[in-house]
From TrEMBL:
NCBIfam families: PRK02615.1, thiE
Protein name (Swiss-Prot/TrEMBL): Thiamine-phosphate synthase
Organism: Cyanobacterium stanieri LEGE 03274
UniProt biased composition (Basic and acidic residues): 54-65
Keyword annotations of the record: Magnesium, Metal-binding, Thiamine biosynthesis, Transferase
Length: 337
């Protein structure tokens, strides 16, 4: 049995390598794809800082022939469907490695652990700079938006929808402690980014900021859009729910990136909320100047009527989260859109 000190050294050694490898992949795109010398230099400086911590005692703990992890793989690692997905996967790889280094580093060297934490926030900033604009471009292309609800096999259901082609997920869990929300949001962001999908947090810019989500979705009584923008910065997506033309006009004036239009039909997700109906969908089609998603009681039986009223994007909750086959349901809805 491996003693504790050796095991910790092996963990640190492996994750120092993993973080440096991921940074090198990002650096190469900054250098050759973007001709962005400043970002390439940031990546290089971080790699060199990690290298400075990679001491001989950590390197000599390595035992590659007996490492069971070398045989593990995942289908998502075998191919990338876009440049954004490739970059995002490697940002996730670096961030995960730095988090491991920070936690296990507390058992090794306090200064080391603090350095890893600071590097992780540097990586968040670089990710926002390089990916932010791409994500806003992706928002313009997506047509199906999933808002989550608590169900059994929560992450499994969402991954099945992502496998069906879903490209944007909003994490919504109203009645849950903040610590649980943080853990779930962080895990869900990683899952979405593995599939090249946008990840949005409902109501809470602070949680969106903490987990480095792609944006936040605000209701009519939530934090003002301007304050959320101050918190999250210009590269993050901010959406807002609207139920009538007046709310739409206000949201557009506030500079949101997209709006929700509904509820089109009455839904238990918005209990007691009167349906806005297809008339509001027609109004949005004629007047909205940002991407908009019809939402509220939409499923495979009525999405055709919503499309006929002028919608090219819809958001759903129960249709996927409570569906028998999230993958085929996602594909079915996408085909109708």
């Amino acid at each position: 049995m491996i003693n504790q000190k050796t095991a910790i050294y092996r963990i640190l050694d492996a994750n120092l390598d993993r973080a440096r490898e991921g940074l090198r992949i990002v650096e190469e795109w900054c250098r050759f794809g973007l001709n962005d010398g400043e970002s390439a230099s940031v990546c290089k400086d971080m790699r060199q800082e990690l290298g400075g911590w990679h001491s001989d005692d950590l390197r000599t703990s390595r035992d590659t022939p007996n490492d069971p992890g070398t045989q593990l793989t995942h289908p998502q690692e075998e191919e990338r469907e876009s440049l954004e997905a490739l970059l995002q996967a490697n940002f996730c790889r670096v961030q995960e490695a730095l988090r491991v280094l920070e936690e296990y580093g507390k058992l090794y060297n306090g200064e080391f652990a603090t350095g890893m934490k600071q590097l992780r926030y540097q990586v968040y900033g670089l990710e926002s700079k390089l990916i932010g604009k791409s994500w806003q471009e992706l928002l313009n292309r997506v047509s199906l938006y999933l808002v989550t609800m608590p169900v059994d096999n929560f992450f499994g259901v969402i991954e099945l929808a992502l496998k069906g082609g879903l490209k944007i997920v909003q994490y919504r869990h109203k009645n849950q402690d903040d610590l649980v929300k943080l853990k779930e949001a962080y895990k869900l962001r990683q899952l979405c980014h593995q599939y090249g999908a946008l990840f949005i947090v409902n109501d809470r810019p602070d949680i969106a900021l903490a987990v480095n989500a792609d944006g936040v979705h605000l209701g009519q009584t939530d934090m003002p859009v301007g304050l959320a923008r101050q918190m999250l910065g210009s590269n993050k997506i901010i959406g807002k729910s609207t139920t009538n033309p007046q709310e739409m006009a206000k949201a557009l004036a506030e500079g949101v990136d997209y709006i929700g239009v509904g509820p089109v039909y009455e839904t238990p997700t918005k209990a007691g909320k009167k349906a806005a109906g297809l008339e509001y969908v027609r109004y949005a089609q004629a007047n909205a100047t940002v991407p908009w998603f019809a939402i509220g009681g939409i499923d495979e039986t009525n999405v055709g009527d919503v499309v006929k009223a002028g919608a090219s994007r819809v958001a759903v909750v129960r249709a996927i989260m409570q569906g028998d086959n999230p993958t085929s349901m996602t594909q079915n809805l996408l085909s109708q859109l």
